[in-house]
Amino acid sequence: MTWMPFSTASFSNLPLMETLYQQYLKDPASVDSSWRAFFDGFEFGGKIGGGEAGPELKVYALIEGYRTYGHLLADFNPIAGKKKTDVPELALQHFGFSPKDLGQTVPTCGFLKEKEVPLQTLIDALKKTYCNRIGIEYMGLGNPQMEAWLQKKIEPHFDLPLTKEEKLSIFDSMNKAELFEAFIHIKYTGQTRFSLEGCETFIPVISSLVDTGALLGVSGIILGMAHRGRLNVLANILGKSYGQIFNEFEAHYEPDVEEASGDVKYHKGFAGTVTARSSKSLNFVLTPNPSHLEAVDPVVEGQARAEQQRKSSKEILPVLVHGDAALAGQGVIYETLQLCKLRGYRTGGTLHIVINNQIGFTTLPQDSRSTLYCTDIAKGFGAPVFHVNAEDPQGCVQVAKLALELRQEFGCDVFIDLCGYRKYGHNEGDEPMFTQPLEYQLIKNKKSIREIYRDQLIEQGVITQAEAQGAEAQFKESLHKELESQKSQPPKEEKLAPQEARAPVETKVSAETLLSLAREFSTVPSGFNVHPKIQRHLGERLAMVTSDPNKPTIDWGMGEHLAFASILNDHIHIRLSGQDTRRGTFSHRHAMWVDQVNAAKYFPLSHLKQGQGLFDVFNSPLSEYAVLGFEFGYSLMYPEALIIWEAQYGDFDNGAQIIIDQFLTSSEQKWSHRSSLTLMLPHGYEGAGPEHSSGRIERFLQLAGNDNIRIVNCTNPAQLFHVLRRQALSPIKKPLILFTPKALLRHPLFVSPLSAFTSGTFQEILDDPSAPPQPKKLLLCSGKVYYDLIAEREKRKVETLAVVRIEQLYPLNMERLVELLKKYTGIEQCLWVQEEHSNMGAWEYIRPLLTEALQGKCPLNYAGRERSASPAAGTHALHKKQLAALMEDAFK
Q1: Does pLDDT of 42 surpass 80?
Q2: Comparing 785 with 481, which gets the higher pLDDT?
Q3: What gap in Å lies between CA 168 and CA 312, rounded to an integer?
Q4: How many CA atoms lie less than 13 Å away from 180 in the CB half-sphere?
Q5: Exposure winner among 36, 154, 235, 796, fewest CB in 10 A?
Q6: For 70, left (φ over 0), alpha (ψ -120 to 50), or beta?
Q7: How far apart, in whole angstroms, are the C-alpha atoms of residue 411 and residue 349?
Q8: CB of 65 closer than 8 Å to CB of 8
Q9: Residues 6 or more apart from 877 whose CB is under 8 A from it?
Q10: Cβ pair 417, 373 in contact under 8 A
């Protein structure tokens, strides 16, 4: 297909247009959609080829030019100074006209209801639509239907009428937005709040989304935003009491430290019900967000997708609010946008609102981005952009209504660039004049947006001066009353009661059930052409459960499948995502079969029985940050499901460290948000080099506290089965960090009997099944190194040494550990053995705990690799040498 957007249309390109027209006559699909629409609308046969374009062609090119480049002349920047009056892309000569043609009558090509008008009249109409206080970028995004839909909405004049009631509603929102900020500024001078002043129009924009959404079938809004304006949203949209917010500014404010450490006021979230002007109620969630400004973006998308799982994409609206500098600078935004059309992650379109202060802390746009607009990333994803002037509240609300209607119609992302300014510094303690003296001199002399709009309404007769003053006085009085009420009786925050992470759960499943499930997921449908190796593999899997139930035959992949199938059999939804998870990085899963003849896909775990739990498995894009954030958000809104993110290799969690630190491990303590998200991190030292050995156990142990997570390193398939079922069935929701094997996937000893699945439960510590009667030496370990140790014990024929495995590193079952150590009464030496370097793995975490558990019985020593900056050896030869030294340390 020849791709040449219509933005190239000009008189100078006439030969090219002639060529395209000839192509169009032969095959309309061979030209770009914008050209196709152009040629469809006009009969060009007698108008092209004479060396000069006919009037329709030149006028249509002019109209397309304004549709494409009109935003360059639009007056949406309230601190831009002198308005731009011309741009080369819209010069008359560019379209084959000259100034002397302005009085010439030209066809309007359907832009105006009149068939012909003077050229100047047409240009004035184009400027009123595309170059007023709203700039629109929507052409050339690959969606001609959307282009035509928008043109019908906004041409010939972008003026969506507002009723008197709507105008008064905007004024009320502006009043509350500005006066709330001013009140705090006076009462709590210098305290950080990240004021919205200069972009207060954001509040009526959000209010408009509520009102419009209620009319368009939206039942829930999930909002993610950074700090600026957050308190305003909490108070004036979500209805968090002003008194509670004032309380958080007081020096005496302190959350219950026994329950939670809490967070600063401008990070907190809130959930509630808001009522639209139509009286319809909507659920509204403001997601908490740390100082990583855009980290919340994928979390919101995951939350929205989880809610849409129960409802529909049109009912649940994700809204992301960006700062201009963060939007241009933060890579997670690209990662999040990349999810917008993927089957496993799409949410039916996100509404993006940029609170555009035209500065990032103290950095100006020309120093913080290489693009014309901070929103230019939207073009890569076919998302239209509306640039609006914060000093035009009515225009901003009109755009908000249109943007939501557009999202509902086309299921696409839409950006609103709310262009304003920042009245104070980055926070209220900053002095902006240090670095931007000219800009802030201009801002200092500006009338507030509320006052500008108030005066407009008075002039229009919508409200009187007395009514405006009365509304202002009434709201100020209500704020004073809230403040006094708070001082007499500070409101209390509701906290979640703490939960222990180690509550036992019944996880065994009957042999009959497991056999039935295994037969179902091992059966190939009639007519499906499965790969011969997979067919053989299925036979082997089935044999694992049909042989002697006491014989260890079930490997890791089968243990996982039995766990998943039994959880689905309990009507629990499973969602598994990550890079290459359908097949499995190490070709051990095969959760999806591909027909070798027609490439049809079949998911055996989705076909176990009628009414089973939903099984979703998705190969994710090559992203860790956004995808893990998405899955975390999903787990928040769907706590009864088993949600798993699998890293291709354990060390890939590096790319998602912000989500791990700021959300996964700390959200319960900071925000009382509980997640049961499971992370599967392939881990094990096998000579594969520094990049694919370590899942960084030490990092998760450093992040562990207050029973916030579960950290598990399983050493057999039955343990995997039980820990996954525990995670799915437990009423206590905690993230599970599950370190999974690589080489052990096909190790002959890394198997379990069926009887281990039909009885028992997950064991946090495993005793040595082959321990000698009176061992003199006790080795404690976790993970794959256990198999190295028992192989070495057999090789050396040592009969005085026992090996105990710590399967759950956190929370550590100290009672069980002390009980086991008491059993080994005669030991003279105890060693912690790990394959990781001494400054990595579990050693630094577990040393004081083991010392306490030993109670002075014998000294505790370490056997393992020496301290290192790199996670693992870079060559297989060095790896083997280090392993041999490790074994020597353990057995000497």
Answers
A1: no
A2: 785
A3: 33
A4: 29
A5: 796
A6: alpha
A7: 5
A8: no
A9: none
A10: yes
Contacts of 276 (CB under 8 A, 6+ apart): 210, 211, 213, 214, 215, 282
* CA–CA dist 701, 723 (Å, integer): 18
Find residue 285's DSSP bridge partners: 222, 271
Q: In the structure encoding, which two tokens stand for residue 259, read together?
A: 């329950």
The residue among 711, 706, 705 whose CA lies nearest residue 735 is: 711
Sign of CA dihedral 637, 642, 648, 652: positive
Which CA distances in Å does 740 have to 577, 769, 810? 15, 22, 16
Which is nearest to 180 in space by CA: 208, 164, 202?
Answer: 202
Question: How far apart, in whole angstroms, are the C-alpha atoms of residue 290 and residue 270?
Answer: 14
Token pair 């690209």: residue:
334
In angstroms, rounded to a whole number, what is the distance separating the alpha carbons of residues 708 and 778? 30
Six token digits for residue 794: 């057999």
Calpha distance 517→496 (Å, rounded): 38
Buried b (16+ CB within 10 A) or exposed e, 457-488: beeeebbeeeebeebeeebeeebeebbebbee
The answer to whether the CB of 693 falls within 8 A of the CB of 684 is yes
Q: Are strands 351-356 and 765-766 parallel, antiparallel or unpaired?
A: unpaired
CA dihedral (650, 654, 658, 664) in degrees, to 10, reads: 10
Mean pLDDT across the stretch 33-46? 55
Structure token pair of residue 166: 């709507």
Cβ count within 10 A of residue 239: 14
Euclidean distance between CA atoms 530 and 527, whole angstroms: 9
- pLDDT tens for 143-188 read 999 999 999 999 998 877 889 999 999 999 999 999 999 988 888 8
- Determine contact, residues 130/67, Cβ cutoff 8 Å: yes
Q: Kindly report the number of other CB atoms within 10 A of residue 526's CB atom.
A: 5
- The residues that bridge with 713 in the sheet, in sequence order, are 739
Residue 696 has pLDDT above 90, yes or no: yes
State the Cα–Cα distance between residues 31 and 16, nearest whole angstrom. Answer: 12
C-alpha torsion 709→713→717→723, nearest 10: -10
Backbone CA torsion sign across 154, 158, 162, 166: positive
Q: Is the pTM of this model over 0.90?
A: yes
Q: Count Cβ atoms within 10 A of the Cβ of residue 772 and give its class: 0-12 exposed, 13-18 middle, 19 or more buried.
A: middle
Which stretch of 53-57, 716-720, 853-857 has the lowest confidence by average pLDDT?
A: 53-57
CA 452 to the chain's CA centroid: 37
Phi/psi of residue 611, each to 5°?
A: 80, 10
- For CA atoms 54, 59, 64, 69, the dihedral sign is positive
What is the average pLDDT across 464-482? 92
Residues ≥6 apart with Cβ < 8 Å to 341 = 381
What letter represents residue 490's amino acid? P
The first and second tokens of residue 591, run together, are 């959760």
Task: Read off the amino acid at residue 580.
Answer: D
Backbone φ and ψ of 648, nearest 5°: -60, -45
Query: Using CA atoms, how far apart are residues 530 and 525, in angstroms rounded to an integer?
Result: 9
Counts for the chain of helices (H) and strands (E), in that order: 30, 24
Contact 354, 135 (CB under 8 A): no
Report the distance separating Cα 40 and Cα 60, nearest Å. Answer: 13
Residue 829: both structure tokens together = 């030496």
Residues 6+ away with beta carbon under 8 Å from 21: 39, 44, 48
**Mean pLDDT throughout 722-734?**
97
Residues in the chain: 892
- Which 3 state secondary structure label does DSSP give 25? helix
Look at residue 675 and give its three-state secondary structure. coil
